[in-house]
Amino acid sequence: MDNDNNNNSSDAMPTVMVTNDDGIDAPGLRSLVRVLVSSNRFRVLVCAPDSEKSAVSHSITWRHPVAVKKVDIDGATAYAVSGTPADCTSLGISEALFSSVPDLVISGINMGSNCGYHIVYSGTVAGAREAFFNDIPAVSVSYDWVGGKSSVDDYKLAAEACLPIFSAILAEIKNKSYPLRGFLNIDLPTDITNHKGYKLTRQGKSIFKMGWKQVISERQGGKMLSSMEMESDSSARTENDTSTVPAGHLLFKREVRGAVLDEVDTDKLSLQEGYITVTPLGAVSPAETDVHSFLKEWLPSAIQQFSSSAL
């Protein structure tokens, strides 16, 4: 267990722990940590994956130990973990690694938005959800990265835009008035400099429609980034690829074939309109009301019908 108390003055500060799914070296996490540290408002811990773990959802390591290595990040106590985002949060809040439980867990900043149904896939959101499972306030943060428009400097602006929310949450925590029955998912628009303000939204049903195509090598078709875009130099990579398919194997790669948006005032649509969206989330997954109504009448009759036919 690490003694993460840097000095006596830091003991009076609230403690935040940062994780992500893009990996501990990702520019989004590094920018977030720099902004948190430079604000001089927080004691900062980092417990993040040692490599990219995008779209692993809420998977956890169960059958074997995870390896942990201390990492040098100015102003923070940081560890890289050979596990998933949910593993990192679970370990970081357990008091097995750090000497205290953080007041707030922040997961991000992710490269690419996390809205609608994609929240289910997101390792970034899972990092915050794991804290929620353990009654610790949490926020997941994602920046709507667009190739050709975005730059790594935007992560700093995104982190600075989130500071008021982090500080307000911690003030409520200090007053013991912050609700623990949910956590927040924040998405920041591509043009963060000219955002339209902060907007409380609800999770929508937007989703990228994905398909599969057969390929003849690992690199054919390029690499899909966590922002659901193809890597800009994918054509050059394909030309230099000398990998081969193992005998008896076929290779298939995902590809984005379109996107589906949904109604007004949801997270994705508001984000595209230029707002910083703040979406309260939980962990239960009830079906739509009409589905429940249908099944309430359908289930007894279905059981009766097919039980009788089986006799």
Question: What can you tell me about this protein's structure?
Answer:
The protein is α/β, with parallel strands linked by helices and about 300 residues long. The chain contains eight helices and eleven strands. It has helices at about 25-40, 85-90, 120, 125-135, 155-175, 235-240, 265-270, 290-310; strands spanning about 15-20, 45-50, 70-75, 75-80, 105-110, 140-145, 185-190, 200, 205-215, 250-260, 275-280. The strands form two sheets. Strands 3-4-2-1-5-6-7-11-8 form a nine-stranded mixed sheet. A two-stranded antiparallel sheet has the order 9-10. The longest helix has 22 residues, at about 155-175. Residues about 5-10 and about 235-240 have low confidence and may be disordered.
Jot down its keywords.
311 residues, alpha/beta, nine-stranded mixed beta sheet, 8 helices, globular
